Amino acid sequence: MPIGNTQPSVRPASAGRAGGAAVTPAAHRSGARPRRSHGGLRAERYAPYILVAPAVLIIVLLRLYPLLLGVNFSFTGDGAQNGEAVGFGNYSELFGDPLFRTALGNVGLLVLLLPVAVAIPGLLATFIYLRVPGHRFYRSVYFFPAVLSPVIVGAIFNLLLAFDGPLNAVLGSVGVGPVDWLGDPDIAMFMVVGVHIWATFGMALVVFLAGFATLDAALLDAARVDGASLRQVVWHVVIPSLARTIQFVFVTTMIGMLTSMFGLLFVMTSGGPEGSTYLPEYYIWIQQGQMNRPALASAASTILFVIMLVVGLMQIKLLERAGKED
Fold first, then answer.
1. For residue 31, is pLDDT > 80?
2. Closest CA to 249 of 146, 64, 121, 148
3. Taking the CB of residue 183, how many other CB atoms lie within 10 A of it?
4. Cα–Cα distance between 71 and 300 in angstroms, integer?
5. Which of 61, 168, 237, 250 is the most exposed place for a label (fewest CB within 10 A)?
6. Does position 116 have pLDDT exceeding 70, yes or no?
């Protein structure tokens, strides 16, 4: 029986698996990708918006909407005029109140002391990064005050700064008379701000250390080779390299000084002596919590928000201009 000329069957190159479309070697070599469907492209386009939508919704509901309600409420009356439109009556009353004018004056004092509040953690972070003598001590204790409650901090410094307290005892031992640190209207606000800076500089220092992690070490090495002093290294290398970090610390520190000093004020001075340590947030609490005047408190809150917005934008502009000049 003649044997036929049998050959093994060869599957054509165009045949794919399970009858699917074939992928030619040329397609593999060219790296061609299958085209995505129109629905896939649309999903990819809207994915970022879907991901940020929950955060935006939270901000709108818990921040922007209450802010707008507060602004609207500030144009209504209190007491017998509750809910009635009074125009700018609340704002006129605020600027006619000596206590509120004192609070605004203290805001100006905070703005003047802000560079000190930023320079202290900035210098400490520089010392730690450059490993100057004592940097291990600063690294071990810098964050300790930040974990204390403002009430505890205020109570501690009430004891230290009391008229018959340890600080005046030390001054008396060197022949200096006692100072009424918290009872003198001319210095009480400086004491409260100083305590606040001591209690909160640890957070700013952490931000500065994070900024130093992005600093190019080659710049510092070049400065050392050129014989630059520590002051020159800080002024010409560190500050320009950390411009964005410094902007962030300036803005967040100012916001903290305007909105996070209530605990210290309440424990240390309660707004005294003679109202000299009033700040807008303390004034707002007095009007809302004790005087039961929510509309007037809303007007003061609106003014505080505008102050923070204007001061923050001015700081950013000034720091950006200084960076460009350098």
1. no
2. 121
3. 15
4. 10
5. 61
6. yes
Comparing 9-18, 58-67, 96-105, the range with the smallest average pLDDT is 9-18
Q: How far apart are CA 163 and CA 184, in angstroms?
A: 11
Report phi then psi at 85, rounded to 5. Answer: -70, 130
DSSP 17: G
SS3 20: coil
Burial label, 217 (beta-carbon count in 10 A; 0-12, 13-18, 19+) = exposed
As a whole number, mean pLDDT of residues 126-131 equals 84
Helix, strand, coil shares, percent, the chain, to 5? 70, 0, 30
Write the CA distances from 324 to 237, 240, 318, integer angstroms: 14, 9, 10
What distance lies between CA 112 and its chain's CA centroid? 18
pLDDT of residue 10 exceeding 50? no
Contacts of residue 297, defined as CB under 8 A and 6 or more positions apart, other chains included, come to: 284, 285, 287, 288
- CA distances to 69, 112, 316, 325 from 322, rounded to whole Å, are 38, 18, 10, 5
Q: State the Cα torsion 23-28-32-34 to the nearest 10°.
A: 40
Alpha-carbon distance values, 104 to 99, 101, 210, 274 (Å) = 9, 5, 34, 15
Which two tokens mark 213? 């992690």
Task: Give the three-state DSSP class for 156.
Answer: helix
Tokens of 96: 């006619």
Percent with pLDDT over 90 in the chain: 41
Q: Counting beta carbons within 10 angstroms of the beta carbon of residue 271, is it exposed (0 to 12), middle (13 to 18) or buried (19 or more)?
A: buried
CA dihedral 106→254→127→219, nearest 10 degrees, is -130
* Residue 15 β-bridge partners: 21
